[in-house]
Amino acid sequence: MSLFGFDVWIDASWLLLAALISWTLAEAVFPSVTPRLAAATYWWMAIATTIGFLFSIVFHEMSHSLVARRYGMPIRGITLFLFGGVAEMEQEPPSPKSEFLMAAAGPAASFVLSAVFFALLALADAWKSPAALKDMLWYLGFLNAVLAVFNLIPAFPLDGGRMLRAALWSWRKNLLWATRIATRAGDVFGILLIVLGVISIVTGNFIGGMWRFLIGMFLRGAASSSYREVLARTALQGVPVSRLMTAQPITVPADASIDTFVEDFVYRYHHRSFPVASDGVLQGCVGTEQAASIERAAWSRTRVRQIMARCPPEEMVGPQTGALAALAQMRRSGRSRLWVVDQGRLVGVLSLRDVMQLLSTKLELEQNEIQRSSAPSGKP
User: Fold this and answer.
1) I need a labelling partner for 51 at 20 to 30 A (CA). Which of 135, 156, 289, 296 fits?
2) How far apart are the two ends of the chain, measured CA to CA in Å?
3) CATH topology for 241-357?
4) pLDDT tens by residue, 18-35
5) C-alpha dihedral over 95, 97, 103, 104, to 10 degrees?
6) Neighbours of 357 (CB within 10 A)
7) What does the domain layout of the chain look like in residue ranges?
8) pLDDT tens for each residue of 215-263
9) Containing H/E element for 288?
10) Dist. CA 215–CA 194, nearest whole Å
């Protein structure tokens, strides 16, 4: 679905979360606070509350996205998954202020929703509404308050961790350093949750302990991947495709037979598609799908020019395009290679492997720098 121009996706794992929340509310929470209701009543209360919680998460993430749009940060969409939701940014915030405001928008929105639900609860109480409705409103107000407070914890990539990063970034004017410190806080908090989860499981609170354990594991992984993503964006910032591409890519002659194309190109280089060029001019693209559309017996007498097609725009990029933009294009199109075209001439090919090699080198240099800065100086 789409809201305010943002695509919203529901990951299959969120259905597990919704089922678990509904089951917990229907079988444990609502029967304990309002006894002697029919089982069906508890279940529709639980389902309605779960839907309200889904809306709350979307509202939380939408607030992030609207502030991000205000500061010119493109958002690919909002994804709801097992541990909540995430607004997927295509680039880092342009300034500490934009980072701080974007991060603060989510908890602020959750606090507003919590206040709204508690206000509705007060009205429902004044109007002598059924206990079932009041229980639902109370729980939704409580859930939004918990969501806001939890996200304010200064542990990246939680909103509080992003606010911490913004403050450190503003102080030291170094986004990478600020991200490193904030992700360390996220890692420590994740370990704390894991330990608390194990203690809870051992002491008999299996469900609560398992959730703490899983959230702790998720936060540790998310903190680490977020740091690598920032490192990748920093490494690729300002790098044009021309510096990473492989010049003089393998091209298929237009007059080659399909037999030759399959034997000498597909089987030899193990790619599914190739550019067709003549004297450096890109004429089209040919791949295994086009070859498979022709009967095997006709391969020897059918030429590549007869089956080739125009290269899709998503498979082409200019030599001066930024590497970050090219990487985002690969992600959107699902392609691992892009043809580098300059005024109709094929000048190179950019592969995901080329980008990964640069990132690997940058990561190795960054890790060496961290080790040197944290090692003892050797002075008494």
Assistant:
1) 156
2) 63
3) CBS-domain (3.10.580)
4) 888 888 888 888 888 888
5) 180
6) 12
7) 2-236, 241-357
8) 888 888 888 877 777 777 777 778 899 988 988 889 999 999 999 999 9
9) helix 288-292
10) 8
